[in-house]
Amino acid sequence: MTTETKDVAGDRVVIFDTTLRDGEQCPGATMTFDEKLDVADLLDAMGVDIIEAGFPIASEGDFEAVTAIAKRVKRATVAGLARAINADIDRAGEAVRHAQRGRIHTFVSTSPIHLAHQMRKSEAEVLEIITATVTRARNLVEDVEWSAMDATRTGIDYLCQCVDAAIKAGATTINLPDTVGYATPEEYAAMFRAVRERVPDSDKAIFSTHCHNDLGLAVANSLAALDAGARQIECTINGIGERAGNAALEEIVMAIRTRSDALPYRTGIETTMLARASKLVSAVTNFPVQYNKAIVGRNAFAHESGIHQDGMLKHQQTYEIMTPESVGVAKTSLVMGKHSGRNAFRTKLKELGYEFGENAFEDAFNRFKALADRKKHVYDEDIEALVDQSIAHAHDRMKVVALQVVAGTSGPQSATLTLDIDGNQQTVHANGNGPVDATFAAIHKLVPHTARLELYQVHAVTEGTDAQAEVSVRLSEDGRVVTGRGADTDTLVASAQAYVAALAKLMLKRQKTAKAEQAV
Ligand code: KIV
Ligand code: ZN
């Protein structure tokens, strides 16, 4: 019996984070190898129980990342995903065998629509596949999770037969995903209740939720299943994931903590690290967090209206059900200016949840000094934007070195740009229809591509005309979607950084595809 199996009778909910697998799978959220390690380290430190580190058969890069994460993670179980195919299972087993606790997570579709159109297999054939693949996985590792893909659109009788086969073959966790985000909370809970009641050996496995957010119900569905006996929740930081995303880890954890009266459970998550995790994932995926996102959105603890502000001043709990500090959000404060020294900056970074080695610290400090020279008041948000950009771009092959732009009423607007590409600096000049167009045309001259600009978005990090601009860019090329972000007091420099960051990700994706094609 595993530790988790014992816990099922109790109130402990196992948090299974799939940011690096289901999260990374969504269009535009590609992470580099080093970024994945940074995210895994943070998840481990935060107390996530299981880190799904990737899909080892998908590419050499995925295999290497899962292997490296398995080797370095100290506390969490490391899981690798596998389809119900022998080669997938062996590859996942190979990647997670280095972990102190390794898990193979294998899945197969069970719904009639998937069986008929995707799998082209009969129910009987799929049952045989479940027995064979779970048995194979159990011969490689002790800890095997089996998922019924599209469980919520599967007939309950057949679903029970599948779960029964998986448990008999040795699955220790049974995951019943709402793959298409279709269920309502009552339906989702009823499915768990029925399966747990009807499958004879259901008490031998932990039951797990995995909800997608197509109808905005992913968190509600996950929590509803707890009452029906589920004790593992699969989720992602910021709710990133396929289509509308997965259940958001920070929302699940804070709902359980804040409403312990209605949800009598507990997780092992250190909640003061949630804001940091959100920022890191947003920085490395280049996915902005929506302003009004629960728990980690920048407005989540902001009180704008007079009535609310008045109430807050009289008593914090009038309009706040949890404190910003409990999720790691420090109160906005004027931090430092150009006279602030290394010690003050180091202390501030620590306060904001960043830990750096000496080289990374020096780099961040120099960037802070450069910003403080240009901007009178430097706020916490400025420092976060600046440091997150350094983290996000630390491993990029291309960097903006210099940009001069001619703008104004008497055109043509033009840009002279110097890029560092793999250590070589190159400069070009281009005209455009406006300064942003000229800047992007210059980048295009240096990095020819056929990608289409799908989104160009600018927002100010703080208030004032000297505020840093944070720019998001989304590009698409041959079905690949990538995003990039940049931050600077100069909107055009931030735009160039964002465009170049997106192109760097695109190159990475092209390489991944090329390697995968070579491997076939
Ligand atoms: O949504 C889903 O069904 C999945 C499975 C692979 C668990 O992500
Ligand atoms: Zn999923």
From TrEMBL:
The keyword Acyltransferase applies. Keywords: Acyltransferase, Amino-acid biosynthesis, Branched-chain amino acid biosynthesis, Cytoplasm, Leucine biosynthesis, Manganese, Metal-binding, Transferase. Its EC number is 2.3.3.13. GO terms for biological process: L-leucine biosynthetic process. The gene is leuA. Homodimer. One of its GO terms (molecular function) is acetyl-CoA C-acetyltransferase activity. Catalyzes the condensation of the acetyl group of acetyl-CoA with 3-methyl-2-oxobutanoate (2-ketoisovalerate) to form 3-carboxy-3-hydroxy-4-methylpentanoate (2-isopropylmalate). It catalyses: 3-methyl-2-oxobutanoate + acetyl-CoA + H2O = (2S)-2-isopropylmalate + CoA + H(+). It comes from the Bacteria. Belongs to the alpha-IPM synthase/homocitrate synthase family. LeuA type 1 subfamily. One of its GO terms (cellular component) is cytosol. Mn(2+) binds at residues 22, 210, 212, 246. Residues 399-520 are annotated as: Regulatory domain. SUPFAM superfamilies: 2-isopropylmalate synthase LeuA, allosteric (dimerisation) domain, Aldolase. Its cofactor is Mn(2+). This is 2-isopropylmalate synthase. Pathway: Amino-acid biosynthesis; L-leucine biosynthesis; L-leucine from 3-methyl-2-oxobutanoate: step 1/4. InterPro entries: 2-IPM_HCS-like (IPR050073), 2-isopropylmalate_synth_dimer (IPR013709), AIPM/Hcit_synth_CS (IPR002034), Aldolase_TIM (IPR013785), LeuA/HCS_post-cat (IPR054691), LeuA_allosteric_dom_sf (IPR036230), LeuA_bact_synth (IPR005671), PYR_CT (IPR000891). NCBIfam families: leuA_bact, PRK00915.1-3, PRK00915.1-4. The lineage of its organism: Bacteria, Pseudomonadati, Pseudomonadota, Alphaproteobacteria, Hyphomicrobiales. Pfam families: HCS_D2, HMGL-like, LeuA_dimer.
